[in-house]
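Hi W.,

Here's what went into the run:
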Amino acid sequence: MTPGRASERGAARLPVLLTVLVVVLLVACGVGGYAAFREHDNRAAAQAEQERYGEVLEAARRMAVAFVNIDYRTPEDSFEAVADNATGEFLEQYEGSSESLVDLLTTNESVMTGAVRSAAVTGLDADSATVIVATNGSVSNVSSNDEQTARDFRLRLDLLLVDGEWRTNNLEFVG
Amino acid sequence: MSVSGPGPRPPKRPLGARTPTARPRKVAGRTSGADDPVFDDSAEDSAEDVTQEAPEPEARHEHVEWPVEDEQERPPPSRRTTGLLVALVVLLAAVTAGEAFYVYGQDDPVVSAKRPVVTGKVAATSAVDAAARSAVDIVSSSFRTYDEQVDLAASKMTDSFAEEFRQTKAEIREDFIAQKTEVTAEVAAQGVVQASPEQVVALVFLDQSTTKAGTDLNVAQYKILVTVVRTEGGWLVSQMETI
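Here's what came out:
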């Protein structure tokens, strides 16, 4: 009878074991739920911060492209493109000097074309950022007899988040 | 596991049939309770019939007070309870597994134009620092300490990139030393182009000063994409591209 009794005892213990297992799993479930909840929050925060890199790089690239593409035949378009991406002091300076720049462009029949070769974030906050941009391009004007001269730039842009849009409030050459 | 159980079972058995003393007798000597119809019957009774729930605790209480030998013959608990517990275990295990998968099992986000950085800010910044410092070491050179400089530079690179670098440096060594050339470099700006836990691309603006015997100082501005990869020995340069 011993094997029979043993299996009976086993059968009797099964619910106890299962109950213990249920309790253990309940605890694991609770801990796991908390961890998943925390992880969800962390991921959302990380994603928001990491996508900010993409947003400021895109805005800085847009500004750099506007800045290195200027055609004396359509000066307003060129200036508008820059102004659209600018804010604050830089916008004021740019608008203040645009008339004399247009004159200069027209007189020299200047055409500058360029593209962004690479852009990188050097500093980033919730609402401000600094980006460096490398551009490759060329310039031609009357004095160069319309010959293209290579014109590459190393730019540093400071950007601010204004009404949900990243706009440049300072642009300088990294000499 | 249906709550209604075997519905049409006739209530022919009086309540008294479920007296505590009757139960052990019924199952005594059984080798396996699961297939026993008698066991089945009484088991379902205890779980389903609300009116019979009341005497149940008392009955169990009596069991505890029985002699040890008798207690060993206590009937296995209800199949229904066991089934319920198994279902609970399965459910909770599934939920726990799901939670674990959410926390640990998912792939890391991938670098994209929308999300060029998929690491923490501190990790990305330190990788960019390493990339810029390494770039200075790699570009710098002197006819006085040519070989030491090559070794230093190579120590900042992955094996394959170091091999390539040493080959180039060996080819220009003679002229470089003969002209008493010295190259120093300074970082003008540095930033992160993209970053993952394993690989970071940095943009470094480097100002490089070159002197040779009999010539003036020549300063050149460079834009360099430096790729560093994570290794046991820290961030090592795997690629440098002047743009």
